[in-house]
Prior knowledge:
Helices cover 17% and strands 42% of the residues.
Amino acid sequence: MGKSNQKVFPALRYRDGAAAVDWLARVVGFEKRLVVPGPGGQVAHAEMVLGGGMIMLGSGKHGDDNPWDRVAQGTYVVVDDVDAHHARAKAAGAEIVMDPHDTDYGSREYSVRDPEGHLWSFGTYRPAE
């Protein structure tokens, strides 16, 4: 896919991430860009492209304290300064569900829940690069 200007990514969680990756490829026509295996044959993280867009997905982990493990979908937004973005969201009264932290895949991220319960994560991970 090469470099992209995409900065907002739909992010999906499936009970069976491997089956979802297969279905999205066979039925919808998505191409697998990256599939990171997880425990027990599940998918820790996948990136799939279609046309000029990309989605991210994985298998739910059930029981973790990570808010992504309790939702079926959310949105990931790339921001340059996670801490400044977090400070703005906090000052505006956002429900912070995961404080800014550094990940093992080199990103800095945090998450909020919007007024209707949707999960939004903001971070420096750029899946299209």
